[in-house]
Amino acid sequence: MSEAVNSKVTSSHLNRRVCVYIRQSTASQVELNRESTQRQYNLVDRAVALGWSHEQVEVVDSDLGTSGAGHAQREGFSRMTAETALGNIGLILSIEVSRVARNSSDWYRLLDLCAMTDTLIGDEDGLYHPGQFNDRLLLGLKGTMAEAELHVIRARLDGGIRNKAARGELRRGLPVGYVWGEEDGEVLFDPDTAVRGTIATIFGKFAELGSARRVWIWFQSEGLPFPHRSITFPETRWDAPTYTTIHSVLKSPVYAGAYVYGRTRTQSYVDADGQIRKRTRQLPRSQWSVLIKDHHPGYINWDTYEANQERLASNTRPAPHNPGGAVRNGAALLQSLAVCGICGRKLRVYYQGRNSTPGYYCANGNVSNDRASRCMRIGAVRIDQAVAEAFLEQVVSTGPEAALQAEQRIHQEWEASVARWRREVERLEYDALLAERRYRAVDPENRLVTTTLAAEWEGCLSELATTKAELAQRESQRPSKLRSEQVKRLQTLGRDLSTV
């Protein structure tokens, strides 16, 4: 150790503790870069060589696996800063400045505290006193270089990621129903027919029902599960779908065969407690970084996807004077459909009397003669009756054809439902077979393992038996087809009604 370095260490410093600050940015670095971690722990010997005893050396390693960019809360750094402010630290020792902080706010705040409390800062190059101009200048340059180095590394990595994403070859998490192929950027359908059938059913039912919520309710009424996959659990897990799950499938452009990147943006903000937080913002399509249409096979085409997005947007409650909105439940026939002829607002529904007779009113209120008045308020009985008669006049001639089409659709839905439950039985049979193989492959004497595997096997068999019973019940509910004489009778009735 040179005399210049030794001259900075005084008895005042030696009477206080030494903080050996150890940090690496990610958990993978902690696991893989063992030599770097060992070098940082070896700084304890350097502190002893400078004159401190082993008892005075405190190793602060609680920030291992935490970034020093300033966004994450570092418990070890905060504790070390607090001890420095109290004057309990004589030396802060780190392998390099970038380990202590990679942002100017943390770094210069620490320098100010060290200057006021006569605390030294050391790295592999030497010892520095932040209260001395030359040392403060050098420490400031090192902190700026550490922050600039982080910016250069991040810009280099982001540039490579964006360049690969622009070609559609960046491999990121795919939604359920897709898997990565062997070629660069190759996206394939999931080989599991049950998974593909579930995704196709969502889009088919949305085309029929026109509402994500109604599709979710239909899945709940049918008792159909939804597949889930994640990095933590690579195997497919089947659970009851949520509304968010159904809505995310309908909103994802990946199912339309498009490769997208940069749909979200992360923003930093200060919460009510003064802490720096991050939140994710959804960007409009015009601001997406990458959008490659027809990149891979899709469950729907791009035109259908855009039509679905317009339909989903129109289902939300519109602003006054704007059309759209999903039809609400209620006894009134024109609920969510009728509009005010004066101001153009959608009419709302009220119910009155013992029989809860519906009526329509406009919510646009005006004050006249110190009394509130509305554009209109009218009962719904006669209006609904007139609308129903007009509707029946238009459809009475096509009634038989509509009945035949409805009968055909009922049979198609029944066949599709039975097919889905048959696939579910096949899947559970395979899961039960795997559970049996795992149970029989274990030594019977190992009761701690065999008990768990036996319970898993019994659970699979119980679920399989329940699903088979449900399949048998649905197969027994096959709808009866219309006979030829019934068809002729409907056609004759339609001709007779059309002449009335």
Structural notes for this entry:
The protein has 4 domains: 162 residues, Resolvase, N-terminal catalytic domain (Rossmann fold, 3-Layer(aba) Sandwich), CATH 3.40.50.1390; 103 residues, Putative Large Serine Recombinase, Chain B, Domain 2 (Hect, E3 ligase catalytic domain fold, Alpha-Beta Complex), CATH 3.90.1750; 71 residues, no CATH class; 100 residues. It has a 5-stranded mixed beta sheet, with helices on both faces. Strands 14-15-18 form a 3-stranded antiparallel beta sheet. The protein is 49% helix and 15% strand. The protein is built from 17 helices and 18 strands. The chain is elongated, with a radius of gyration of 35 Å. By secondary structure, the protein is of the alpha+beta class.
Question: Summary?
Answer:
Helix content is 49%, strand content 15%. By secondary structure, it is an alpha+beta fold. Helix 8 packs antiparallel against helix 9, helix 10 runs antiparallel to helix 15 and helix 11 crosses helix 12.
Reconstruct the topology from this structure:
Elements: H1 3-8, H2 11-14, E1 17-21, H3 27-32, H4 34-41, H5 43-49, E2 57-60, H6 75-85, E3 89-93, H7 97-100, H8 104-117, E4 120-123, E5 126-128, H9 133-166, E6 178-180, E7 187-189, H10 193-209, H11 212-222, E8 226-228, E9 237-239, H12 243-251, E10 259-261, E11 264-270, E12 276-282, E13 290-292, H13 302-314, E14 348-352, E15 357-361, E16 365-368, E17 371-374, E18 377-379, H14 381-395, H15 399-441, H16 447-476, H17 484-498
As for the number of domains, it is 4
Give the low-confidence spans. none
Report on the biggest sheet.
5 strands, mixed
Which CATH C-level class of the largest domain is it?
Alpha Beta
Number of helical regions: 17
- The structure class reads alpha+beta
Measure the end-to-end span. Answer: 113 Å
Oligomer: single chain
| Percentage beta strand | 5-15%
Widest sheet, order of strands: 2-1-3-4-5
Rg estimate, integer Å: 35 Å
Shape: elongated
**CATH-level-4 superfamily name of the largest domain:** Resolvase, N-terminal catalytic domain
Number of strands: 18
Q: Please state the second-level CATH architecture of the largest domain.
A: 3-Layer(aba) Sandwich
User: What is the CATH third-level topology name of the largest domain?
Assistant: Rossmann fold
